[in-house]
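Hi, here's the filled form for the chain we discussed.

Project: internal
Contact: R.S.
Residues: 429
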Amino acid sequence: MVRYHYALVDDLVSREEFDRLIEEKITACGNLADEVAAALLVVKDLGRSHVKIRGLRGRSSLFCFYAKIIACSGAKEFDRPSGEKGLVARLTVADETGQIDLVFWDEQAAALEETFEIGDVVEVIGRHGKNLREIMPLNLRKTCVDIDCVTEVRERKEPERIHSTLLVLNLSPPRQFTRRDGTAGEMVSGLIGDTAGTARLLCWETTLLAGISPGMAVSVTDALVRDGDFGGREIILDEESTLSPAEEVPDIPMTPLAMVLPEQTVSIRGRITRINPPKPFSRRDGTRSWVRNLQISDENTEIALVLWDEEAKRSLLAGETIILYHAFAKTGRSGDTEVSLGKGGALFLVPGDGEQVRMEGVILHLPEGIVLTNREGSWLVETALPHGSRVRITGTVSGRRLCSESETLLEYDLNVIKSRLDAFISSLT
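And the returned structure, exactly as it came back:
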């Protein structure tokens, strides 16, 4: 049974080490803890404690959580493509943050109603199937944990068409997909904000986003809005939707840092009080990514912030003010609340008061960040221009930060480069 618990930490320790830690934990508890209880304690010591239902994210991750059974569909028979009969059953479970379905097949589905009852609190170890609204349990057991949660099964509302003004916060590169009729299409996902908060954006007509970039306000008509997989909203743009730039920027609600609680998705604003360099790490699939630890403050409260992936490599300085949209709050290893931001969120730098300038120089990608450099000095700048680009930037300078308002690529003058190279060679002879 503990093999499922080991799957929660198999990227941190070997199986032999995990078994050794279990034995040590049983001994430390005076042999009063069984193997499963000891495994749970070891998992918690390694920083992989149980999550809430709202925190069930990602297709490939393995999750462990407690929940109360609030509904059971009973086993239903269906026909497989091979012609064989199959059984499927669902348990709807919930905690104080939301609800989700557990899906069981064949023998497990048949035995479900005899094993569990509505009101039982269970510990679930499982992963997502094809549908992010479902969990495929790998292990399920009754527990004595007390959970206070909603007891009514939440019915999903039918999508409705809306007209609204949105602030585009994040856009992913277009992704290819195949329609049911076999033709190819493109879709773009992203993040938007409005007066109700943040929402996931799904655009199935990518031509609507031509000329639109993060930070722009847009007016949309006939966009679909529906419940997301784990609460929250999804805004969908399809062939019936229209989109155009808007002058008025919606006021997105911000959560004061003192009001941030674990297992919440929040948008916050704060000044960077401490910042560590980004650190590389390898994921389970072997890909390389980055993580960075910071502290931010809103003058009343200070909170820990963890940036992941590309956000961790942003050029940031202590003392600067940033806004984080759609960040996830959780309990950190120290027991205090920390906020985490990765691909699903967005980070915006709040420009400080500065001098209006127009500068020419070369873009360099350095370990400290992206800089514009010339004979007068170097300034941190946020730009998508590649390393070595010669550019003219109009914007404002505040300390070591250059906030770009417009960028113009400049051609290198080969005659000037040649004359400087000749002069350098002459100086060596």
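Let me know if anything looks off before we file it.
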